[in-house]
Design a protein that fits this description.
The chain is α/β, with parallel strands linked by helices and 279 residues long. The chain has 11 helices and 10 strands. The protein has an 8-stranded parallel barrel with strand order 1-2-3-4-5-6-7-10. Helix 2 packs across helix 4 and helix 7 runs parallel beside helix 9.
Length: 279
């Protein structure tokens, strides 16, 4: 299969301080051999707002440690999720906060380049949603000066938003760079009631990072196959775009993580294998 199959960091370990998704500070290394045993290719690293400077993505010598753990396990870090920007959005009306977040993103681009990563996911959902045209304008203003660095380091800035297909496409077109791409989350789109066919027709060629989860309409995450995600429609349409990026499991988890993960990995594998044969 040309596409890597991986997991969002922390989902194969006991919850970090009870959080659903977080960088497991102090024991993140333990996840890599587990991922290898499950046959995964990669882990999408997370940069949280809390304790950001302790994260190996930003701490002195941290990137070297990630590379060593990845080499020993055979599980790569090819993508990074900048959850930091959920708490401190680039488009914050607090200009000092936005400036600090811009600096953090620049540092993250350098770290990601050293890792050999391809994508940094920038979440614009929930508390960092692009809630109006002013927020969109601020976002474009803040992100545009960073594009030259992303281009020089060959890093995609992969946007995850809760915008409908047309306004999302309009946002993408405001950037004159092929390094502004799309993170597509199957479950989040289902929860928002979006049609995956319409979404892919709007910006399918720009997707470089895919999160796999299932959610109910207007509700939370559920075990794959139990929600409103249209997996058949999505994967059939995706074949039109020759997508060669990673598929990253962000599916429902419980307090421990591994058993429920394996159940869902087994459920989604036929879709991934069928996509690999014809995609």
């Amino acid at each position: 299969m040309n596409n890597s199959i991986g997991v969002i960091q922390g989902r194969l370990l006991p919850k970090y301080i009870g959080r659903y998704q977080a960088h497991p500070l102090g024991y993140w290394q333990d996840e890599f051999p587990i991922a290898k045993q499950l046959g995964l290719d990669c882990i999408e690293f997370i940069l949280d707002f809390n304790d950001a400077e302790k994260n190996p993505l930003l701490s002195a010598g941290g990137v070297d440690e990630i590379l060593l753990v990845a080499e020993r396990s055979g599980v790569a870090v090819k993508t990074v999720c900048a959850d930091y920007l959920m708490e401190a959005p680039l488009h914050s009306e607090n200009t000092d906060l936005a400036a600090t977040s811009s600096d953090v993103l620049r540092r993250l681009i350098h770290s990601s380049s050293q890792l050999g990563a391809t994508d940094i996911v920038i979440p614009c959902v929930d508390q960092s949603t692009l809630e109006n045209t002013d927020a969109v304008d601020r976002f474009v203003t803040q992100l545009s000066p960073i594009l030259e660095l992303a281009e020089s380091k060959n890093i995609n800035l992969s946007l995850e938003t809760d915008l409908a297909p047309t306004p999302f496409n309009d946002l993408l077109n405001r950037f004159e760079s092929s390094r502004i791409t799309v993170n597509y989350d199957i479950g989040n789109s289902a929860a928002l009631g979006f049609d995956p066919i319409e979404e892919l027709e709007a910006y399918g060629a720009r997707i470089t990072d895919i999160h796999i989860k299932d959610r109910v309409l207007d509700g939370g995450s559920v075990v794959l196959g139990n929600g409103n995600a249209n997996f058949d429609g999505f994967f059939n349409k995706l074949k039109s775009f020759n997508y060669r990026g990673p598929f990253l499991m962000q599916a429902y988890r419980d307090d421990e993580g591994v058993a429920i993960f394996k159940q869902q990995l087994d459920w989604i594998k036929p879709y991934l294998e069928a996509y690999a044969r014809v995609g």
